[in-house]
Design a protein that fits this description.
single chain, alpha/beta, 5-stranded parallel β-sheet
Length: 450
């Protein structure tokens, strides 16, 4: 969409000259020598930006500015003023003008001011849209299981603080959803939420994405670019897949987390920011440190407050809630109203290696395939329809007097550790849980002391 520029100035020749100059820049231009006509055009045409003279005989420019801001509170207004009225121009900025230019002015300077303000307005609109999308897509964590309710409590506790948070969990467990929930419940909720996947970019591009670059910093750097940390100022930055960073990038990140300052690539100016850091990983950081692929000092900087998201197989009571949540999300598009009991039983019995993300994809696929208003077993992927032949039934001799569930869990952990020769990772695999979940339970029962 081509931006519309409105020029309001009582000098006819200046209106004419500016109109031609702005048209050459590719803008759609409206101009008038009447302040009242200008207000009418603001109301009817809703221009992208207004160039306004302060001194006009029919109506004072300050009054035009006030009325324009009443009609369009977010419209950028650039003031044209003579040297003798600079104080008035500054006063105009206090009541909402975006910038001012003194007459006689340099046309290139005016073009730059207009371009900058249009970019700022566009970014503000995009940020507003993205915030609304975040609210719509990540309103809350869905689930009633004890595991997810514990996560919700931890999020509520840490959100009010400004502490750095480390979110762990397998791929697809909803780490970004948790990060958004922390942001939305924090005092920074009105600031930006900026996310970046550290595994998605090579090292030289990741540095530029995080910290920005100056014009000419490298081949293809045609202009200055602000990095994600700069864009996240007074808000939250979410660093996903943090363990995929190289050691050299980890060292640079450590400085930013410690000092909240950095230089753009190719620059010498130190940029200071106020950003909350939330990091996430699907890998075991302790093992990554032991292997020498993750810095221990960075780990302690990030791990101020840790939240572990359980895999879906450990919170199966949440599957019906999640399935219906996704069905509601896709309903406007696919017109499917419900999931049959037989299909829901299959969903609940599946082990979900891809976690919540896989469940969402399965529901959308079934909604596409379904010709009616109900998802049936035949609409589900074949891997959900058949239990693997090598899956053995668990035999438990249940005594008449009953048995403690905690005692059963404790015995299973002991046997898994014995079978694995004390290898905690292998024991966790035998039990179908994560190593961190195994450690938590083993410490709980005093099987492992530290």
């Amino acid at each position: 969409m081509v931006p519309t520029i409105l020029i309001i100035d009582d000098e006819q020749h200046l209106c004419w000259a500016l109109e031609r100059a702005m048209q050459q820049e590719g803008y759609h231009v409206l101009s008038t020598t009447s302040p009242l006509k200008g207000l009418e055009l603001i109301r009817e045409e809703q221009p992208s930006l207004v160039i306004l003279d302060l001194k006009m005989p029919e109506m004072d420019g300050m009054d035009v500015l006030r009325k324009a801001r009443e009609m369009q509170p977010k419209i950028p207004v650039v003031i044209l003023t003579a040297h003798g009225t600079i104080e008035t121009a500054i006063e105009a900025m206090k009541i909402g003008a975006a910038d001012y230019i003194t007459k006689p002015f340099d046309l290139d300077e005016l073009k730059m001011v207009i371009k900058q303000n249009l970019v700022i307005t566009q970014l503000a609109t995009e940020v507003s849209f993205l915030r609304s999308e975040l609210t719509r897509r990540y309103s809350k964590l869905v689930g009633k299981s004890p595991a997810i309710q514990e996560v919700v409590k931890l999020i509520e506790r840490v959100a009010a603080s400004d502490a750095t948070v480390l979110i762990t969990g397998e791929s697809g467990t909803g780490k970004e959803v948790a990060a958004v929930a922390i942001h939305q419940n924090s005092p920074r909720r009105d600031g930006p939420f900026i996310a970046i996947n550290c595994a998605a970019l090579p090292e030289h591009l990741l540095e530029s994405e995080l910290f920005g670059h100056e014009k000419g910093a490298f081949t293809g750097a045609a202009a200055r670019k602000l990095g994600r940390f700069e864009l996240a100022d007074r808000g939250t930055i979410f660093l996903d897949e943090i363990t995929e960073m190289s050691l050299s990038m980890q060292a640079k990140l450590l400085r930013v987390v410690q000092e909240m300052s950095f230089e753009r690539v190719g620059g010498t100016e130190t940029i200071h920011v106020d950003v909350r850091v939330i990091a996430a990983t699907n890998r075991n950081l302790t093992e990554a440190i032991e292997k020498g692929i993750f810095r221990e000092d960075l780990y302690y900087r990030l791990n101020v407050f840790q939240i572990h998201l359980p895999p879906l197989r450990e919170r199966k009571e949440d599957i019906p809630l999640l399935a219906n949540h996704f069905l509601e999300k896709f309903r406007p598009k696919y017109l499917v109203n419900k999931i049959s009991p037989a299909a829901m039983e299959l969903l609940c019995s599946y082990h979900w290696p891809g976690n919540i993300r896989e469940l969402q994809n399965v529901i959308e696929r079934a909604a596409i395939i379904c010709q009616g208003n109900e998802i049936l077993p035949e609409h589900l992927p074949k891997e959900l329809l058949h239990t693997p032949q090598n899956e053995k039934e668990l035999v438990i001799n249940f005594p008449d007097e009953g048995i403690s569930l905690e005692q059963v869990e404790k015995e299973l952990i002991i046997k898994a550790l014995q079978k694995s020769g004390g290898n905690q990772t292998r024991a966790a695999q035998l039990l179908g849980i994560t190593r961190s979940a195994l450690l938590y339970r083993a410490q709980k029962y005093g099987i492992i002391t530290s």
